[in-house]
Amino acid sequence: MSDVAVKQARPKKKSEFLRVLKELTKNKLAIAGICLILLEVLLAILAPVIAPYDPLLMNLSETFQRPNATHLFGTDDVGRDLLSRILYGARYSLSSGFLAMVFGVVMGVIVGSVAGYFGGQFDNIVMRILDIIQALPGMLLLIVLASMLGGGFLNTIIAMGFGAIAGNARMIRAQILKERTSEYIEACQSINCSRFRIIFQHLLPNCISPIIVGASMSIGNYVVLGSSMSFIGLGVQPPTPEWGALLSDARNYIGMFPHMVIFPGLCIAITVLAFNLIGDGLRDAMDPKLKH
After folding, report:
1. Cα dihedral 21, 23, 25, 31 in deg (nearest 10)
2. What confidence tens digit (pLDDT) does each residue in 107-164 have?
3. Maximum distance among all alpha carbons in the chain?
4. For a Cys staple, 97 with which of 107, 112, 125, 223, CB 3.0–4.6 Å?
């Protein structure tokens, strides 16, 4: 059987990206979420240009200022401008969430794809290891990994991404198990396609939709996790401006100076909401019931 026969045997995915994009543009909430994230990314990129002050510059004569014309978001306990710190903090919070998602998805897809395709004893061993990982409370596992690796931006990303491998691997494995007996896979095997090519060129494109939806919604969770780790001192280390670290700095002054908590907290909440809206929109756009 030739390559032409294999292509004919595969399910048709003509203009799948365009179809999903078209459906997504009909969802006003998803578009709102995309606009919010793009705005945050733009502000983070342009932080050196639009931030009114150096985020690390301390001015003890201007401590605990409430929002005013000079400091729109006020200042903290050592006189640093909160607006500038939030703008720079967006770089760390957004990038840590995105990179942790990429790390967890890539590793999970590789592990789940290989385990689902080969099956047998190898699959059993991989699944039992994943069972052990998932048996541990997520936050406890994250704290243990962060403690072992040490604090810092890169180590926090690795710790968060490692905790997501098991869930992503299970999800893609379930899809692979359903697809691997399809006719187009049998056609690929009949012409001696390599296992690597079958998995990553033929199987994954037909199984990736749930991963895309899950990944888009998980970025918000990673932003919260990264902020939580910084809040307890295991994430991005002071004086680096990160939203969780800003909340940690402000926890002793929440009663008298609530602005120090409100603005970083709002940024985290808006980011999580935006990613959830995008994820919901992608889920609806990729719903198999909408396919013709």
Report:
1. -100
2. 999 999 889 888 889 889 999 999 998 888 888 888 899 888 887 889 999 999 998 8
3. 80
4. 223
SS (H, E, C) the chain: CCHHHHHHHCCCCCCHHHHHHHHHHCCHHHHHHHHHHHHHHHHHHCHHHHCCCCCCCCCHHHCCCCCCCCCCCCECCCCCEHHHHHHHHHHHHHHHHHHHHHHHHHHHHHHHHHHHHHCHHHHHHHHHHHHHHHHCCHHHHHHHHHHHHCCCHHHHHHHHHHHHHHHHHHHHHHHHHHHCCCHHHHHHHHCCCCHHHHHHHHHHHHCCHHHHHHHHHHHHHHHHHHHHHHHCCCCCCCCCCCHHHHHHHHHHHCCCCCHHHHHHHHHHHHHHHHHHHHHHHHHHHCCHHHCC
Q: How far apart are CA 46 and CA 23, in angstroms?
A: 31
pTM to 2 decimals? 0.84
The pLDDT tens digits of the residues spanning 77-115 come to: 999 999 999 999 999 999 999 999 999 999 999 999 889
What CA–CA distances, in Å, run from 237 to 29, 59, 142?
35, 21, 16
How far apart CA 79 and CA 60 sit, in angstroms, is 5
Q: How many residues does the chain have?
A: 292
What region, left, alpha or beta, does residue 236 occupy, with left being phi > 0 and alpha being psi -120 to 50 degrees? Answer: beta
